[in-house]
Amino acid sequence: MPGRILIIEDEERIARFVELELVHEGYEVDKCTDGRDGLEKAESGKYDLILLDIMLPGLNGLEVLRRLRRTSDVPVIMLTARDAVMDKVSGLDLGADDYITKPFAIEELLARIRLGLRHNGANTAQQADDLVHGNLTLSVSRHEVHYDNNLIDLTAREFTLLQTLLENKNIVLSRSTLLERVWGYDYMGETNVVDVYIRYLRSKIDDVYGVHIIQTVRGVGYVIKD
Ligand code: CA
């Protein structure tokens, strides 16, 4: 059993989507839509990790977190709206372990949950192994990428993009597949954002180490080949 997770989120569509994905990954999941109920459940001590939305009826997420921290150090990942910088800062000040910006890609959320649980000393048996390609190593659990022994500084999005390509080695992934897996279920922007992020990855890895890791398949998408 990877762990018990409580989702406190009043947007039914998001809560349901996350619940399905987490159950699929083997987590035990409860959810509630109101800050007051959420706080009561979170204080029960039954959960290994809490996903906490900020804009909630009853009590807002920051207030839930502030009260919860009087009695509990359970890992909390805040779900914040795009660009709500103050919410992120306040959440971290109040003792949130991490935050993720909506809309998010499920792979990114799962990676952060694994990280949050690991920091809490929970069962780590189900952690993914390192993904290796030549001298490149991506550690899912540590959320780090190394080339030889050099740490490569990637943003969360670049990391998830590289992880997705490494997990699907030798399979050509189209731009729309990458958009869905890396940018999320309701991303509305331009598909060329994929090309832009591939360029970022190449500038941080290929250009620095003189390698050619991600191949372009013209008119289709991208692939990492053995
Ligand atoms: Ca909300």
Keywords:
Rossmann fold, 9 helices, binds calcium ion, 21% strand, Arc Repressor Mutant, subunit A, elongated, 226 residues, 2 domains, 4-stranded antiparallel sheet, alpha/beta
Helix and strand arrangement:
Layout lengths: L3 E5 L3 H13 L3 E5 L2 H9 L5 E5 L7 H8 L7 E6 L3 H9 L4 E5 L3 H14 L11 E3 L2 E4 L4 E4 L2 E3 L3 H12 L5 E2 H9 L8 H13 L1 H4 L5 E3 L3 E3 L3
Parallel strand pairs: 1-2, 1-3, 3-4, 4-5
Antiparallel strand pairs: 6-7, 7-8, 8-9, 10-12, 11-12
Helix pairs in contact: 2-3, 6-7, 6-8
The chain binds calcium ion (CA).
What does this structure look like?
The chain is of the alpha/beta class and 226 residues long. The chain has two domains: 125 residues, 3-Layer(aba) Sandwich (Rossmann fold), CATH 3.40.50; 90 residues, Winged helix-like DNA-binding domain superfamily/Winged helix DNA-binding domain (Arc Repressor Mutant, subunit A). 40% of the residues lie in helices and 21% in strands. The protein is elongated, with a radius of gyration of 18 Å. Bound molecules: calcium ion. Calcium ion (CA) binds next to loops.
Summarize the entry for a quick read:
This protein is α/β, with parallel strands linked by helices and 226 residues long. The protein has nine helices and twelve strands. The chain has helices spanning 12-24, 35-43, 61-68, 85-93, 106-119, 156-167, 175-183, 192-204, 206-209, and strands at 4-8, 28-32, 49-53, 76-81, 98-102, 131-133, 136-139, 144-147, 150-152, 173-174, 215-217, 221-223.
